[in-house]
Structure formats: C-alpha cells, structure tokens
Amino acid sequence: MALQMVSENQEKPLKDNVLEFIESGEAESLSALEILTWGIENFGNRIALSCSFGAPEGLILLDMMHRIDPASRVFVLDTGRLPQATFDLIDRVRDHYDKPVEVIFPDAERVQTMVRDDGLNLFYDSVEKRQLCCRVRKVEPLNRYLSELDAWVTGLRRDQGSTRKGTAKIEIDRAHGGIAKLNPVADWSHSQVLDYVLDNQISVNRLHTAGYPSVGCDPCSRAIGPDDDPRAGRWWWENPDTRECGIHTEEKGSGI
Length: 256
Description:
Layout: H1 16-24, H2 32-43, E1 47-50, H3 56-68, E2 73-77, H4 84-97, E3 102-104, H5 108-118, H6 127-146, E4 151-153, E5 170-173, E6 179-182, H7 190-199
Parallel strand pairs: 1-2, 1-4, 2-3, 4-6
Antiparallel strand pairs: 5-6
Helix pairs in contact: 2-3, 5-6
C-alpha cells in the first residue's frame, strides 16, 4: 500500500525568516558553500545530508558540510540490494571523517511481503512493480526518517536528466511535511563536480572507474558508454521520463 500524501495542515511550520528567504528566490545567487552554511545555521542538528554513496555529488556535499560543522549529519538508505563497492565506501568515508553515517533500512515485513507476492526481481516486470520496489526499499524509509527533521540536503543537479531540470537550490518539500530541501549543487556541471573531487581528494565509489557514473541498487545499475547520458545506466529498460525512484517527486509514494 502506498503511503498517503501529507496534507497541508500536517506541515511543519518553518520560521518566518526561513520561509521568506526560500520564497524570495535569493538562494539562486548563492554558492553551494553559502547555502550549506545557511542551512546548518538555521537548522542545526535538524538538517541532514542524503548521500547515496553512489554518486560524487553527495560526497562533495558531505565534505563541505563537515568543513562547516564536523557534527553535521549524513544518512544513507540501505535498500538491501546495494553493491559491495558502496558498502566499502561508506566505511571508508566514516573512518576518514570520523563521522557516524546513519544507515536507514526498509521495513522487513514490507520487503518480505513484496518479495513473496512479486518475486525478488519484480522491478524488471513493469514500471509499476519497479516503482513498488523503490517505494518499499527507499521512499517509505526516507519518509519515516525525514519526519524527524526540519530540512535535508541532496546532490540533485539540473543537468542530470529531464526529471531534474527545474530543481531549485532551496525549496519547500511539500511531499515531506513542508520541510526545507536544499540542493546546493543544482546549477553545477559534471565537470565542476569532478574538479572538486580531484582538488580535494574526495573518495568516490570505485564502480565509477568501471563505467558506472551513477550507482544505485546492484540489479538496477549498469555501466554505460562515454557518450551516454550520465543516468542512462539507471533503470535502463525504462523510458527516461520514468527513471526516478520516487524520492524526489512531489507525490509521496510515487515513483514517477
């Protein structure tokens, strides 16, 4: 069963100055570091970074946030289908920064029911079943986690695909109770991301060198060619317009 949408009367009220700043659009002129500094100053330990450890964007944001505040929070969704390379990176990053990584798991009973009813590899059968798998393993655990926060940070960039072109640097996340959503590198290019990685010696997923620019669940990620769209290896059997897990969509529980 899909989670219900959060109604407006369930939204967490943002402080007036925070709300006014977000709605003003002033954040579009700020750098990634300035946006993260604003977020940490306004939300403290009620803001956390969502890092997949499967793309460099999250890792450079982790580095920036750690420089601003070593106590800044980071979490990862462990779907149960991540590749070993991702787990290895999580441990390496945790040790390097001496930072706890909050690992969020799906509800075991929900996973068991889904697998019993539709099989272990249901995501290959249809878009609907793939969205169900993403919802159970990623969206629902995220919803539970974000219900305890006032803001979160993502590594979304506008040039990552057709579903992300309109990403704002800071927005009100209506799908998660009206909390603030910070996308500090929304206007960055892929080359800017790589430059930061090289200049600051950021650890990244070793599968990137094997042709995986974006690493998600193991069965839903594959290597691509040098001229392919960076997200072409994610859910490659689907139309590009449906290649989202539901985390960054307006309707809670949707995979569209």
